[in-house]
Write a structure and sequence with these properties.
By secondary structure, the protein is of the alpha/beta class. It has 20 helices and 18 strands. β3, α5 and β4 form a beta-alpha-beta unit.
Length: 510
């Protein structure tokens, strides 16, 4: 039963390496959402993440013989840093297997604490499998990043601190979820001591392994996991963590990439600190909870779980923030191709600012523009804007939620294919970003089909994204599909995407 964790949490040895992190009030957010919003600042830990709590507590429970053999873990970074610091503190040799997609800042941080780093695979699961192989070969002791009672108890000290530091009214605590160690520990403690406080898990929309498990009533393994928030990019919830979570957690919320980006900015605005995507995940869920349940006048707390992100990833984060905050609409609008049309279009927008405008001459009668427009964060301003434009005679499509439009089309507008480009099919690919990855992708793509369009943009993220146009006769489509499946890259066909037909296709009536 989860109650057995209470004594474990109370006895957990974490403060030799961890601090009792403060709880800060997010004053700007609180005013904006008419609630008291608090942040538990685990980003202020010595390794800029909560993970050292569980790692150190686990090592305190190892025997002298086990410590002498040395420890090993698989981690995307934060658990790796926690274990490396714990091992350094205790004079134990540590080996960390990290996915090759791990941000360099985390790799460097682990090495700086004396641990041996092995980069293997593109996902946590691949790194974990290699770590287990080394356990069998070298007799190392595996320290699991989340699915271990002592690790769970170490993370649970955060729940203990929250209730000790904040004794007043508390409506809900929001906790990021990857494998579930943090959520299980925090929920076990809070629900035992103050059962009236809601404990809500928050997952990325594209890595929602807990949500899937709760829906099925059993643990399931996701076929694909998005790793924008690599700290919680786990395909299957832990066995022990799921046992605890399903008995203690009130609700699970998912957040999109855009919503996480917006939450990173929110944390920066209130604290002048930069959270990593997983670090801001709980706040993204908190904001969604307020909007969904129409909550007012309550005290809500989100765990800011970490601040380990590559600086160059901030380019991508800032680009997506306005959409995540629901302050920008991305639209395709048809206006007359004649002098004064743009000015007239701007006047229809009223006081709204244009954040982006892309256009290229393509037709003597109509101009197709790709435009970003600033909108109010609350209410139905986006829907009203689209309706107003349509009422004024401007054919308009809303691309605010169109991934292809946001990732690629906005940077390629004006590239209609010439009329002699026939039988073009469009695919959007995603592959692990590391040195040589793009060349490897092109090599695998081969020369069997002519590449009629290619767009690649490095966002500083863990995965590279490519938009490709290929010429393939209808009789060849089955063979092409089989070929693409063999590439073993995540891909989506976008041939029927309206953004492609409006701005890129030579067959505009298709």
């Amino acid at each position: 039963m989860p109650q057995r964790y209470i004594k474990k949490i109370l006895d957990a040895r974490v403060y030799d390496v961890a601090i009792e992190s403060p709880i800060d009030e997010a004053t700007l957010l609180s005013k904006r959402f008419n609630n008291r919003i608090l942040l538990k600042r685990e980003d202020l830990q010595p390794v800029f993440s909560f993970k050292l709590r569980g790692a150190y507590n686990k090592m305190q429970h190892l025997s002298e013989e086990e410590l002498a053999r040395g420890v090993i873990a698989a981690s995307a970074g934060n658990h790796a840093q926690g274990l490396a610091l714990a091992a350094l503190k205790m004079g134990v040799k540590a080996t960390i297997v990290m996915p090759r997609t791990t941000p360099q800042i985390k790799v460097d941080a682990v090495r700086s604490r004396g641990a041996k780093v092995i980069l293997h695979g593109d996902t946590f699961e691949q790194a974990s499998a290699h770590a287990q192989k080394l356990v069998a070969e070298k007799g190392l002791v595996y320290v699991h990043p989340y699915d271990d009672p002592e690790v769970i108890a170490g993370q649970g000290t955060i729940g203990m601190e929250i209730l000790r530091q904040h004794t007043g009214p508390l409506h809900a605590v929001f906790v990021p979820v990857g494998g579930g160690g943090l959520l299980a520990g925090v929920a076990a403690y809070i629900k035992y001591v103050r059962p009236e406080v809601k404990v809500i898990g928050v997952e990325p929309e594209d890595a929602a392994c807990l949500k899937a498990a709760l829906e099925k009533g059993r643990r399931v393994k996701l076929p694909h996991v998005g790793i924008f928030a690599e700290g919680v990019a786990v395909a299957q919830i832990g066995k022990e963590t799921f046992r605890v979570i399903r008995k203690t957690v009130d609700e699970v919320i998912t957040a999109t990439t855009d919503e996480m980006c917006a939450a990173i900015k929110d944390i920066f605005d209130d604290t002048r600190s930069i959270a990593e995507p997983a670090g801001a995940l709980a706040l993204a869920g908190l904001k969604k909870y307020i909007e969904t349940h129409q909550v007012e006048g309550q005290t809500l707390l989100a765990i800011d779980s970490g601040a380990n992100t590559n600086f160059d990833r901030l380019r991508y984060i800032s680009e997506r923030t306005e959409i995540g905050e629901k302050r920008e609409a991305i639209l395709s609008v048809t206006i007359p191709e004649q002098p004064g049309s743009f000015k007239k279009f701007c006047s229809v927008l009223g006081k709204r600012s244009i954040t982006e405008f892309n256009y290229r001459y393509a037709h003597s009668q109509d101009a197709q523009i790709f435009v970003g427009v600033q909108i109010a964060a609350n209410g139905n301003d986006r829907e009203e804007l689209v309706q107003n434009l349509q009422d004024k005679g401007y054919p308009t499509l809303d691309f605010t939620d169109n991934e292809m439009a946001k990732l690629h089309i906005r940077h390629m507008v004006g590239g209609h294919a010439p009329a002699d480009i026939k039988e073009e099919v469009i695919y959007r690919f995603q592959f692990p970003e590391r040195p040589g990855a793009l060349l490897n992708f092109l090599t695998k793509l081969g020369q069997q089909w002519n590449i009629s369009m290619f767009h690649y943009r490095n966002h500083g993220a863990a995965f590279g994204r490519v938009l490709v146009g290929l010429q393939a006769a209808k009789s060849d489509r089955k063979a092409l599909q089989q070929f693409l499946d063999q590439l073993q890259y995540s891909y989506t066909e976008e041939t029927d995407n309206p953004a492609y037909h409006l701005f890129l296709s030579g067959q505009t009536g298709a």
